[in-house]
Specification:
flat, DNA-binding transcription activator activity, RNA polymerase II-specific, CBFA_NFYB_domain, 94 residues, activator, 71% helix, Transcrpt_fac_NFYB/HAP3_CS, 5 helices, Histone-fold
Length: 94
């Protein structure tokens, strides 16, 4: 396999499966809405980047605390510290 093909495969491994992204989009949108392939691909890239962004922040917190495992509290902390408090609140432990 050439270098271009290998980098394309590695890039795809970083993305959420497009079928899952499309399924979630269809659940949220009105039942008669059409979702283009380009819209699914764009959302796939955005969601994957968002997850990477939040995970990186949570991982930094773990590293500073000399821990090796990211847990749910770390994700909530990362969401809040990045300004996504509205997302962190519903998943915070009571």
């Amino acid at each position: 396999m050439d270098e271009i093909g290998e980098s394309s495969i590695k890039e795809q491994e970083k993305l959420l499966p497009i079928a899952n992204v499309g399924r979630i989009m269809k659940q949220i949108l009105p039942h008669n809405a059409k979702v283009s392939k380009e819209a699914k691909e764009t959302m796939q890239e955005c969601v994957s980047e968002f997850i990477s962004f939040v995970t990186s922040e949570a991982s930094d917190k773990c590293r500073k605390e000399r821990r090796k495992t990211v847990n749910g509290d770390d994700i909530c902390f990362a969401l809040a510290s990045l300004g996504f408090d509205d997302y962190a609140h519903p998943i915070t432990r009571i």
